[in-house]
Design brief:
Blueprint lengths: L2 H25 L3 H18 L6 H23 L7 H29 L5 H12 L3 H7 L5 H27 L6 H30 L7 H18 L5 H12 L1 H4 L4 H4 L2 H33 L2 H4 L2 H25 L15 H7 L14 H20 L1 H33 L1
Helix pairs in contact: 1-2, 2-13, 3-7, 3-10, 3-13, 3-16, 4-5, 4-7, 4-15, 5-7, 5-16, 8-10, 15-17
């Protein structure tokens, strides 16, 4: 492929993703659906011209960077304020119980359709399908009331982080001799990683506030990726390092105590946090855009025509919303709509799906199941948000406010021009 045509294609995809985001805010249709469909169209176009790019090498690199950026972005958004502890506890409870219950239900469904499959390999496929996508939820719930919005942001963030850690811990301990051995390995692994993460996070924050170079942010992103990769090679829970650093940077006023306050300067950290958050959001946007498009390019439309795909997808969808309805009725109790229908699957599900090692991959498991579940949960979420009266009113109010502000700016500029003429 000509290099200039390739660059034109990349730029068109990025620009389209930006406008998909604007369209998503107006219509509540998740941009992820539009990106996947764009990828499907690009894939068909490449097939027509008989061009076969190396999809999997792209997905592997994007997957590693995507995991790090998602956890970092989520950690920066978590605010550990005392007034929010009841909300955080409830959302954490629902995220953990929902993840566990949905994973086992989906694993049983996969076992039912694939005879002779054991529970652990089925769980490897079930966990990615059980994780909510904070990358889709956070920008989509802006029109909900404050408490509902915060609850869903915390729940989806916890679901992302715990789901990713649970998936990799399961993979790394599948060949363990006993449950007691697994419990010891996992607990010691987490304890050592937590200690290492806390020490490294404070050290990184101390160094970053004293670096004066203009390129320091991508320098420290490179350091985080390096630490993640090294920890991964030694089978530590490396995402805890990213999580700890993000939580410390976003909540330093609470997490800096005693003699530590002497070593850190709030005004420097605030500046670092603002710039770091902006770069993290921009990088996450870029990674998400290309990952969803590449995922769409890898999909085979033939798999969607398979009746088995629709049957297993229907069972998965019923499991997701059944568990959420029961948990919300028990924990939240009041005003559970539209929250029970806001449970989209997205980037994390795709990342983990393609991270399954070759020895655990099921040749008969169709990737079309993943596509159907992602698109179906996204449309269910969009429908529930559109049907929500408060979200609809707030969206209309936001649009009207924007128009009034634009008219005010235009009027002011006209007045200024007439004054200058006079």
């Amino acid at each position: 492929m000509n290099s200039y045509i390739f660059l034109i294609g990349l730029c068109i995809i990025i620009i389209s993703s930006f406008f998909f985001g604007l369209l998503s805010k107006r219509t509540n249709i998740p941009s992820v659906v539009l990106l996947i469909l764009t990828g499907v169209g690009v894939g068909q176009l490449l097939d027509y011209f008989k061009i076969q790019p190396a999809y999997m090498s792209w997905l592997e690199i994007l997957g590693i960077v995507g995991l790090i950026m998602i956890v970092l972005e989520a950690a920066l958004d978590l605010k550990l304020e005392r007034s929010k502890w009841p909300l955080i506890l409830k959302s954490f409870t629902i995220a953990v119980v929902s993840l566990a219950a949905t994973s086992f239900l989906i694993a049983f469904i996969i076992q039912f359709f694939m005879e002779g499959l054991e529970i652990l390999p089925a769980l490897i496929y079930a966990i990615p399908l059980s994780i909510m996508s904070s990358a889709i939820i956070i920008p989509s719930v802006s029109n909900l009331s404050g408490q509902k919005k915060e609850f869903l942001i915390y729940e989806s963030t916890f679901s992302d982080i715990i789901g990713i850690m649970g998936f990799y811990l399961l993979l790394e301990n599948l060949n363990a001799n006993s449950a007691g051995h697994v419990a010891f390995v996992v607990s010691s692994n987490i304890l050592l990683t937590v200690i290492m993460s806390v020490v490294l996070s404070y050290a990184l924050l101390y160094v970053i506030q004293h670096v004066r170079s203009g390129a320091k942010f991508f320098l420290f992103l490179a350091v985080l990726v390096l630490l993640y990769s090294i920890a991964k090679l030694f089978h530590f829970s490396s995402l805890l390092i990213i999580l700890a650093f993000g939580l410390l940077l976003g909540n330093y006023k609470i997490l800096l105590w005693g003699p530590l306050k002497k070593w850190f300067k709030p005004e420097l950290i605030d500046q670092v946090f603002g710039n770091f958050q902006m770069i993290t959001i921009e990088t996450s946007f870029l990674v998400r855009t290309f990952f969803f498009v590449v995922f769409g390019m890898t999909l085979s439309l033939d798999s969607i025509s398979n009746g088995w795909v629709w049957l297993i997808s229907a069972g998965i969808l019923v499991s997701i919303y059944l568990v959420r309805t029961i948990l919300y009725a028990l924990v939240v109790r009041t005003e559970i709509k539209p929250q029970i229908f806001i449970a989209p699957r997205g980037l994390i599900s795709i990342l983990l799906f393609y991270a399954i090692p070759s020895e655990f991959q099921l040749p008969d498991f169709e990737s079309g199941v993943l596509m159907v579940v992602i698109i179906a949960t996204s449309f269910i979420m969009a429908s529930s948000l559109i049907a929500s009266p408060r979200a609809r009113i707030k969206s209309i109010y936001s649009s009207a406010t924007e128009k009034l502000q634009q008219e005010k700016i235009f009027t002011l500029s006209e007045n200024e021009t007439s004054d200058e003429n006079r």
